[in-house]
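TA notes, week 10

Several of you asked for a full example with nothing omitted. So below is the full record: structure tokens for the whole chain, then the designed sequence directly under it. When grading your own attempts, check the secondary structure regions first.
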């Protein structure tokens, strides 16, 4: 039962621990239900992090921001497991985000019961389940944003410059994970700059405090400026990352405008918060009109979301991508939604019934609905490659003699990334055609003349050849005389005998295969 009295704060801390433990148990059940990935980006990010871990260098330009690659790459240098190390990191950060939601809502409204409701809403959110189980950058970003908001609310209450610097530093790190953090930082910096100018003109602070606020306002923009300059230096376009993303989306998803997809996605992820968010924010402002933290929170919850809609412009996108993009903005509304639910339930006067019981009942209904949505996530076919990779890993363990030999595979457009992750290897898997974006048009080496294929097999000392397409299976059997030795997830495995790994007389330039990952 939810306790409405703040003197039950100890029980509520126990409650948040139970929420996190329950979430972890459900996350394990989520994996057992068959969940592997929300999008192929999980495998791509892990593969890039693994390549970085082998050859660490600074990344100053590109499309994907680098801090997530650094985070996973550093962890992989200590423990090389491409499937579970990134997932464990994300699971831990997902749990921390729930604690931060609790602390932030408690700091904002001063009531532990409201804070617990907000934490429960976050823990139950379907996309929080999906993102907490994958090696994507959204959960690290959410965790950093919530930590930054918590420390900034404490600054607004205590006027302690350590809190404002801490908030600015957390945002500075978040801006290296995802671009949505840039929009949060814009609001943060404008509020600080406006506060400095307004209070200085009214004689409420001196010049030294103005400088403190302006420095804090600038800290989140250290990395974005480096990134913009880096892109300009490499491509001549400081906003190259935006240009390429727009071009990619137009190529794959077409032109058009569909703002209704935002509402559709939000209703799928949480119909209760989608309907109640604006009402909750309005009630927060009405009941706490003089609260600086509440006014600031309302601004953070609304303005970045509107900025995202403006920049994204209703561009058609995949359902999984919209789930990810809207997640942060939905999560930020949960303190207000919790305040709304708590206010509605405590306003009910039911003789003989403690207010906590109706609130518990409401949360129970929300739990059933949200968990039902979470466990109905469609299967991502790109994740089928994990099974293929894990089968390769098993074969290598069974026969140490082939453990270091490369494997030649057919590159199915995004499944090849999952194969690398499942094999726990980004060095010795070679593919039958080069990596190309935005569309796979290169011809397979299997469909070339007989001699180039034989030369490739001899040059690289392949242990296995793994293909899926019927025409490639036929080519392997006809040109190399190999027979299938097994099948996994629709891929056929062929073992290459030692007689076909002789390099005598084979020039090193006989075959060129894709051995580098897309950057």
């Amino acid at each position: 039962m939810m306790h409405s009295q703040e003197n039950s704060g100890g029980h509520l801390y126990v409650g948040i621990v139970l929420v996190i433990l329950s979430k972890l148990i459900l996350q394990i059940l989520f994996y057992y239900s068959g969940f592997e990935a929300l999008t192929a980006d999980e495998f791509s990010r892990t593969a890039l992090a693994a390549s970085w871990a082998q050859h660490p260098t600074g990344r100053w330009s590109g499309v994907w921001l680098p801090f997530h690659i650094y985070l996973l790459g550093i962890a992989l240098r200590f423990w090389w497991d491409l499937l579970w190390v990134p997932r464990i990191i994300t699971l831990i950060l997902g749990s921390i985000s729930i604690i931060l939601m609790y602390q932030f809502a408690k700091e904002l409204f001063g009531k532990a019961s409201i804070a617990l409701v907000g934490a429960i809403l976050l823990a139950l959110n379907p996309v929080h389940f999906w993102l907490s189980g994958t090696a994507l950058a959204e959960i690290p970003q959410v965790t950093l944003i919530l930590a930054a908001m918590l420390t900034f609310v404490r600054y607004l209450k205590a006027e302690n410059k350590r809190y404002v610097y801490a908030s600015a530093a957390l945002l500075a790190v978040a801006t290296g994970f995802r671009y949505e953090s840039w929009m949060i930082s814009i609001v943060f910096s404008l509020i600080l700059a406006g506060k400095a100018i307004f209070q200085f003109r009214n004689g409420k602070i001196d010049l030294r405090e103005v400088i403190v606020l302006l420095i804090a306002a600038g800290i989140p923009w250290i990395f974005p400026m480096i990134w913009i300059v880096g892109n300009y230096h490499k491509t001549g376009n400081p906003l190259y990352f935006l240009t390429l993303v727009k071009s990619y989306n137009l190529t794959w998803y077409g032109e058009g405008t569909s703002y209704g997809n935002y509402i559709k996605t939000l209703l799928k992820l949480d119909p209760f918060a989608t309907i109640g968010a604006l009402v909750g924010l309005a009630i927060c402002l009405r009941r706490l009109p003089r609260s600086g933290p509440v006014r600031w929170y309302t601004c953070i919850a609304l303005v970045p979301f509107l900025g995202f809609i403006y920049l994204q412009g209703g561009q058609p996108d995949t359902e999984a991508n919209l789930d990810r993009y809207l997640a942060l903005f939905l999560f930020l509304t949960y303190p207000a939604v919790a305040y709304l639910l708590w206010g509605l339930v405590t306003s009910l006067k039911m003789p003989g019934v403690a207010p906590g019981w109706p609130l518990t009942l409401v949360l129970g209904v929300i739990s059933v609905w949200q968990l039902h949505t979470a466990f109905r996530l469609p299967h991502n076919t790109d994740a089928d490659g994990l099974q293929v990779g894990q089968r390769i890993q098993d074969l290598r363990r069974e026969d140490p003699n082939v453990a270091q030999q490369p494997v030649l595979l057919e590159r199915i457009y995004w499944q090849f990334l999952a194969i690398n992750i499942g094999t726990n290897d980004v060095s010795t898997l070679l593919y039958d055609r080069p990596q190309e974006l935005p569309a796979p048009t290169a011809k397979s080496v299997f469909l070339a003349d007989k001699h180039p294929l034989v030369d490739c097999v001899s040059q690289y000392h392949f242990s296995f050849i793994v293909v899926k397409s019927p025409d490639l299976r036929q080519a392997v059997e006809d040109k190399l005389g190999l027979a299938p030795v097994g099948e996994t997830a629709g891929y056929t495995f062929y073992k290459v005998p030692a007689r076909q790994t002789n390099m005598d007389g084979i020039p090193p330039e006989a075959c060129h295969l894709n051995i580098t990952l897309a950057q």
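Residues 257 and 313 are 7 Å apart (CA to CA). Use that as a sanity check on your answer.
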